[in-house]
Amino acid sequence: MKKTRQRKIIEIIRKNDVETQEDLAKLLQEEGINVTQATVSRDIRELKLFKAPAENGGQKYAAQEPGEELEPVENRYLRVLHDAFVSAEAAQNILVLKTVSGMAMAAAAALDAMEFEEIVGCIAGDDTIFVAVRTAEDAMRLADKCEKNF
């Protein structure tokens, strides 16, 4: 069942611009495969799917093509942050990052994966990320870093 579902996920994302896990779950259900969001999330991680630019200017799930060499993971994180980033503002030891609509979760995951020493953790909505930072000084430094690099 799992292999069949994962094959169907690859088929769906190659035929459709799937922007969210919810969209993917809906398309799977239309194919007669009942899934929870948690199952879709695990499948995305196991299949090593990533967000790629879509023709509409948004982001979509993509998979590595057979025989294709993937770019280094850190480069993908930087690209996600670059594509998503709008602004950064420090508020004491909280950094508030604004992103393109629908990109906050992907950007927060990229920030977490990059393991910035200043960051304690991130909470993301649709277009806003609250980044818990160790100190107010670290928040200001990280805001500057984001403005310059993303």
Spatial strand arrangement across the major sheet:
3-4-6-5
Instruction: Profile the largest sheet.
Output: 4 strands, antiparallel
- Globally, the shape reads elongated
Q: Helix count?
A: 6
Task: Kindly describe this structure.
The chain has about 150 residues and is an alpha+beta fold. Helices cover about 45% and strands about 20% of the residues. The chain is built from six helices and six strands, in the order αααββαββαββα. The protein has helices at about 1-15, 20-30, 35-45, 75-85, 105-115, 135-150, and strands at about 50-55, 60, 85-90, 95-100, 120-125, 130-135. The strands form two sheets. Strands 3-4-6-5 form a four-stranded antiparallel β-sheet. The chain has a two-stranded antiparallel ribbon with strand order 1-2. Helix 4 (about 75-85) packs across helix 5 (about 105-115). The N and C termini lie far apart (about 40 Å).
What labels would you give this structure?
two-stranded antiparallel sheet, 150 residues, alpha+beta, 6 strands, single chain, 4-stranded antiparallel β-sheet, 6 helices
List the helices and strands and how they pair.
Elements: H1 2-15, H2 21-30, H3 37-46, E1 50-53, E2 59-62, H4 73-84, E3 85-91, E4 94-99, H5 104-114, E5 119-124, E6 128-133, H6 136-149
Antiparallel strand pairs: 1-2, 3-4, 4-6, 5-6
How would you summarize what this structure contains?
This protein has six helices and six strands, in the order H-H-H-E-E-H-E-E-H-E-E-H. It has helices at residues 2-15, 21-30, 37-46, 73-84, 104-114, 136-149, and strands at residues 50-53, 59-62, 85-91, 94-99, 119-124, 128-133.
